[in-house]
Amino acid sequence: MRYYIIAGEASGDLHGSNLMRGLYDRDPQADIRFWGGGKMNEVFHGHQEGTGLVRDYKEGAVMGFTQVILKARSFARRFRDCTSDILAWKPDVVILIDYPGFNFRVAEFAHKAGFKVFYYIAPKVWASRESRIRKLKAYVDKLFIVFPFEIPYFTRKGVDFIYKGNPLIDAIDNSKAMSDTREAFLERTGLPDTPTIALLAGSRTGEIETMMPVFMQFADMLHALPEYSGYRFVVAAAPSRPASEYSRFVGERSYVSVVAGESHSIMRFSKAAVVNSGTASLECALIGTPQVVAYASAPINFLIAKSIIKIRFISLGNLILDRFCFRELMQFYFTPENVLQEIRRILEDREYSDAMLEGYSEIREKLGGRGASAAVAAAMMEELREQR
Q1: Which of 10, 199, 285, 375 could form a cystine bridge with 164, CB 3.0-4.6 A?
Q2: pTM attached to this predicted model
């Protein structure tokens, strides 16, 4: 069968690559064409010849409402390119992975053009823009959800879905970081053998510009304390961004390093982490590193988001537990002083950090076992057979 997959972000590229492995394993004749990134492209070239990657997700990543407006023309052009390509290629199914701003438009087009549409990793309608549920019902043949708290929500809303667990467990457990040694990690990155604090600012330009200045002020403050003067702060640069986007904020700080493409290992071998809200926070929980989550954006973006977001927590881990497992510092509370206070508590209060790790175990348990990506691939193929 012919599968057309669209992923618009780094996390979508990761989950798309694991889904592709599952599809190839169960359908040796699978022909896949996709919008994604390097991870999906690597899987494709391990199973097919030719060119499967139509467009790299790095070309379209934006953050916040203002950037979306500024890039409206680019979005329109990419949408035209995508829909034309779908029509020309004629897949058996269009599989959309998260990325709702773009993928909802594709879903409507593909449905009206007569293609089967699967949506993998539900858009966060439970957080905001609940009106999009109407579009899910109208344009999506089957929704594949990945969080247990979504089960009662979509059941109440009457949306047809399948739940097979969360693919991030496989992504983490299969990551090279989980079999890595500290010695190999230090040799590979050139980092000194000192205690480290992980700093994850995100992968989008707007996130980096917002988070990094506060991260650096926090690093200065902790480094100035005699008992922490030997600590190193390691900025995990996303592979989709040049390291220079992060390092330009570091300046002459000899105690701060920027390392690209090693996020999981950086988390694993750090004493604590300061994490931009998003998938990285859940990754940190599954890896087992105590953390504090931070989120900030331009004031206008924050005010707009605050007016439409309905959830109590901004972190997936806290949402899964429906309580605070780790602290969230949002907007005006995201200050170097507050980050310093929380990191010191993590490092100095063993009872506090142990309770956080117990919460991590509960998060993993609630997400289910391994094999979610393969199970979703099998469910998708079964759905296609039934709908033929």
Answers
A1: 375
A2: 0.85
